[in-house]
Amino acid sequence: MKTSYKLAAFIILCISLASCKKVIDLKLRDTSPQLVIEGNLTDIVGAQSITISKTVAFDSTNTYPPVSGAIVKIIDYNGRVYNLTERAAGTYTVNSLVGRYTLPYTLQVQVNGQTYTAKSTMPGRVNLDSLSVTTQSFGKSITNTIGMSFQDPPNIKNQYRFILYVNGIQVNSVFVRNDQFSDGRFVQALLYQDDIKINSGDKVNVEMQCIDPEMYTYWYTFSQQSNGFSNSATPTNPPNNFDKPVLGYFSAHTIQRRSITIP
Known about the structure:
Blueprint: E1 35-42, E2 48-54, E3 71-75, E4 81-83, E5 85-88, E6 91-94, E7 104-111, E8 114-121, E9 128-138, E10 141-151, E11 159-166, E12 169-170, E13 175-178, E14 186-191, E15 203-211, H1 213-223, E16 247-261
Parallel strand pairs: 1-16
Antiparallel strand pairs: 1-2, 2-6, 3-4, 3-7, 5-6, 7-8, 9-10, 10-14, 11-12, 11-13, 11-15, 15-16
């Protein structure tokens, strides 16, 4: 899933979806360029992609230059090595790999003589049951909010991330939750956001990801930023799963998608 690095002028209001957790202090933006590695491994057949770029000074352009010429590998639970090919500048892909549930994967990236390593375990799959629409009226103004429901498996710690699209455009808000207070329950929750107004006739898509605990911490930290960015690695430093200082993440996760047309 390709993600753009664009500064979003908004305040994230969706922390109500996140379960109770101690707020993590962030060291905010450094003006010096930093390496950004953003990797996703899914259970969907198709290209698995790793993007590598560099940040720019905070007061500079929002165009993040891609990093070419890196050596990128994914190593599976059996030690098999998958070499990724640079198909476009800064984007490295492999087509012969599909993630398997409950098993660990390792990402290795070599750039400028440095090797960066991250590990992620793909959780078991949880089905996204259905989507719904909740309508609220404030005078002449009508607000449509998307709801989603799913059955959380009992006696297993689960973490989730949700990505909301309106007519193909990704909403900037970050939606994450765990099952600390909903283990084994049928979950119904609303995806509150004020980034994109949802109108009658709009097509809305929701992608549900089952993520590991480290990625939950990463995205939860993102959701706590009062003046943050969109759903991508950015020039801030949420705690990630790399062994060396670098921005970004490596996430082995499942994907479920549902769509709804607003009546």
